[in-house]
Amino acid sequence: MARAGLTADRLAAAAADLADEVGFEKVSLSALARHFGVKDASLYSHVRNLQDLRTRVALLAGGEMIDRIAAAVAGRAGKDALAAFADAYREYALRHPGRYAATQTQIDQALVADAPAMRRTAEITYGMLRAYGLEEPDLTDAVRLLRSTFHGYCALESTGAFGAPRAVQESWERAVDALHVALVNWPRREPDRRPPQLSP
After folding, report:
1. pLDDT mean over 52-57
2. Residue 199 Ramachandran class (φ > 0 left, ψ -120 to 50 alpha, else beta)
3. How far apart, in whole angstroms, are the C-alpha atoms of residue 111 and residue 45?
4. What is the pTM of this model?
5. Which among 87, 102, 142, 167 has most CB atoms closer than 10 A?
6. How far is Cα of residue 165 from the mean position of the Cα atoms in its chain?
């Protein structure tokens, strides 16, 4: 019998909090069951398995992250939008390491296509880049450049890997400046009229 008060959404939220505390890879059904004071079997009324739980955490975190990014870029364009997007991305990644790790996992494309948060992420990201005059396939290439730059920087910063005396914030701002220059001077290709993928 399902324990009163437990829902899939409540389990996902608790798992997201746990991920921030101990790391996304350490989130387990057993740990979550202990948190709620129930047996592992009680959770299977709400989630199919650990992968289902992790997918729910990824979608939850993705929604939270894009909400913050959307609020940051609202009313902005060009370099201002790029900087606001980048700063909101970095702030979320560093403040919520477990949740952020969840957003970097591979999710079934069928689930991605049905997830409003993932569609919104694509709309906001591609919309920002279209202001630079980009079309496919350049849009997808540019998204991959931004994602890899932001993720790599945040991953290194979160582990204290930047050892040089120069302030990390100053290097971050210069990196965003460099991305803006790259986008303005993007080497154009012939447009690809196919719709962009939701998860580049």
Report:
1. 94
2. beta
3. 20
4. 0.89
5. 102
6. 29
User: What does the pLDDT look like over 75-89, one tens digit per residue?
Assistant: 999 999 999 999 999
8 Å CB contact between 184 and 132: yes
| CA–CA distances in Å: residue 129 to residues 89, 191, 194 | 16, 14, 16
Tell me how many helices (H) and strands (E) the chain has.
Answer: 10, 0
Tokens 């991920």 sit on residue = 19
DSSP, residue by residue, 146-188: HHHHHHHHHHHHHTT---SSS-HHHHHHHHHHHHHHHHHT---
CA distance 33 to 132: 48
15 close to 32: Cβ distance less than 8 angstroms? yes
